[in-house]
Amino acid sequence: MAQKTEIEWTDATWNPMTGCTKVGPGCDNCYAERFAERWRGTAGHPYENGFDLQLWPDRLTQPKKWKKPRMIFVNSMSDLFHKEIPEHFVDQVFDAMESADWHVYQVLTKRSSLLRKYVRKRYSDGEIPKHIWLGVSVEDDAHKSRIEHLKQVNTEARFISFEPLIGPLKNIDLSGIAWAIVGGESGPRARPMHQSWVTYLRDTCQRDGVEFFFKQWGGPRPKSGGRELDGVEWNGFPWRIVPEPIMAQMQR
Length: 252
Hints:
The chain is of the alpha/beta class.
């Protein structure tokens, strides 16, 4: 299931586990669940069991098969820090990322306290490898504590996905964050995103030195509202945290 992707801010997805459960309002209209449940009961399909949590040990070696460096979104169809995923399997995922170190891995979670606990334990003697980026999803002001959890891990490669952004945030400090991705919800029950919510995040990023990427306004389809903010496409990317050897290979 490693594959190219239409997600604008990455090159490929890698799903050594699939399936998840809801942890907040940002999960209400989960695109991954909607996709997976279409195939429930289809014999032989990877999503024969719908969005039930499932581990795929045979996928752990997939990054090594890609020889050209890529930005890889880890678990677009799950959450690496789901409480029901055994720690030994999370260890194997990190082992795989450390082994195929010519890629950049983008690990995104809503379970920020579990991310913090795990990486503090695994990397108790130093920083997380620079090619492993850690991010949290924040959908509204009620869940901004995830930002503080993220700041408490020892890395410069921190990013936040404010998607789907379903409510305003206020009084947030993004110092120490490298990158912010903002996007509205898409799908048949998409909730609207107000422009003032987006401009606040953009202005906060500019104040705090954070690269700002505006992904979409959302709507019935991802591209329904386009992706311009104030007549501009915002494509900020944190090139400064891409390790130099990987950057050199990407430019070949």
